[in-house]
Amino acid sequence: MNNFGESMSLRVDIVVPAYQESENIQPLVERIAGVRDQSDFDINVFIVDDNSQDGTEEAVASLGLDWVNLIVRTTDRGLSSAVLRGFEEGSGDIVLVMDADLSHPAEAIPSMVQELKEGADFVVGSRYIEGGSTDDNWGFYRWLNSQIATLLARPFVNIKDPMSGFFAMKREQFNQADELNPIGYKIGLELIVKCHCKKVVEVPIHFTDRVRGESKLTLTEQLKYVQHVRRLFLFKYAQSSEVVQFLAVGASGTLVNLAVLTLLVGLGMGDRLAIALAIMVSVCTNFLLNRRFTFSHSREGVILHQFVKYVLSVSLGLLVQYGVSVFLVETYENMHVQLASLFGIGAAMVLNFTMMKFVVFKRKFYKSS
Asked: Torsion angle, CA of 143/147/153/155, rounded to 10 degrees?
């Protein structure tokens, strides 16, 4: 284990993922150099470029600094994998990640390193704690997007700015990682969860909008983030995540059931037949969604075989649902058919989940905790 008390021997690797950021390389390195000259720890920079072919290689070469390393990837793409590649190339005691677009202040690096020396597992450069800020021209959409993304990260870490791309951690903490498979651009959240970081600390920064180049944040990357959050939820909460997803699918099936039921009754169909047909439609949608999301480990199975097993395993629940719904609507004069169906759905839900988990989509083995 490294002795973090001996600052002179401390080495910090700064990983900078980049794509078409040639205009920002020199000013970024100049700011890091200013920190390097005044710090009592050593800094090495690893710029990981996704084959930009925009002059990045020439920009780094013109600096002539042996502590600035360029890694050009020609067979891979993406911010998260670039960060991991940078981690692998270095051997410093601390690994720190920052953007190439000058939005992250290099001047905050000493404070981040100090927090790690004092016992933090993971340090985030935060826009949202006291002392942190963003440029004034942040629009409402950008702010809202950040807030929603932060809310989605809440099950994993209770900090103000979990979406920050400016963060640092001890290499020994990184070496404890379970299998890393991040999607998209938010590698920090992946590392917090998969490296089992307990003490996550924020230091305030001023986040500056880029002046040169174009933002890489697209709708596609935002959708990848949602997919990433789902993956992390499955990893961290294991068995309970299946229950949550099952309930979410059940809620969607309920909406399908009620929509079809309302449509059929509105067309003049009798209650009994309308209830039966609505159940049949929701059974199909529930099966497809549960197979795709709740029990996604079973997507490689034969779908027709699984569907037959599914119908057989939930048949008792379907009978309960149908029986309860028909009984209520025919026993109570003022009972709306939709409300009766809701009671029927609730009565069948627990039984259906048990059958799906242990019969239709059962695992061949479970991880030991």
From this structure: 170
